[in-house]
Amino acid sequence: MPLPIIRATTILAVRRNGRVAIGGDGQVSVGDTIAKSQAVKVRPLKGGRVIAGFAGSVADAITLFEKFEEKLDRFPGNLPKAAVELAKEWRSDRVLRRLEAMLIVTDVDHGFMLSGNGELIEPDDGILAIGSGGAYAQAAARALVRETALSPAEIVKKALTIAGEICIYTNTNITVLEPTA
Fold first, then answer.
1. Residue 4 confidence (pLDDT)
2. Is 131 one of the annotated binding-site residues?
3. Is 33 annotated as a binding residue?
4. Which residues are catalytic?
5. Is residue 55 part of a domain?
6. What phi-psi label fits residue 75: left (phi over 0), alpha (psi between -120 and 50 degrees) or beta?
7. Is 86 in contact with 114 (CB distance < 8 Å)?
8. What residue numbers bound the domain in which 165 lies?
9. Higher model confidence: residue 66 or residue 154?
10. Closest of 170, 161, 68 to residue 120, by C-alpha
11. What CATH number is given to the structural domain containing 96?
């Protein structure tokens, strides 16, 4: 009998007016059971100048965060180059290719969604979403960006709350981070 699927998370990043915020819900589900309700899936990197979030396997995501920080050390202050280099290594390395996670990495100037399939996407509108409730959070964030003057952090919180009200694998225990100056 196969093990139940672990579904862990919704991550949303919003860039607006020279500011950015990233947030994630706290739910981890195993099959049709909530295993944890207050997980933290977003974290600051490089002293808080870069913020990141993950969806998928925790151990795999931690490995990817470490690899990404190595790229940031190699290319200081150049988030796009670090993201490209991680995506290339992730896609070509036989061990990394098996990692089951997706990342959003962002600073005040750039934001990227990365996956082991070779995706490296920087959206035109500054809104990035991954995970089980990602499409719901992204739709809510787009509406809020178009129709309100809210800050990125406020948009992330409200959009993730909406996703948590719709997606059974997302809750409303939300963590929101903004980069430090």
1. 63
2. no
3. no
4. 9
5. yes
6. beta
7. yes
8. 6-177
9. 154
10. 68
11. 3.60.20.10
- In 3D space, the residue among 104, 112, 89, 122 whose CA is nearest the CA of residue 54 turns out to be 104
Instruction: With respect to residue 85, please indicate whether it lies within any of the assigned structural domains.
Output: yes
Domain count, the chain: 1
Whether residue 164 is annotated as binding a ligand: the answer is yes
166: number of CA atoms within 13 Å, CB side? 16
The average pLDDT across 147-166 equals 97
In a domain, residue 34? The reply is yes
| Tokens at 46, concatenated | 């490089």
Q: What is the pLDDT of residue 117?
A: 75
How many residues in the chain?
181
- 1 part of a folded domain: no
CB 1: neighbour CB atoms within 10 A?
Answer: 3
Q: Which two tokens stand for residue 63?
A: 């490995």
Name residue 37's amino acid: S
What does the alpha-carbon distance between residue 127 and residue 29 come to, in Å, rounded to a whole number? Answer: 25
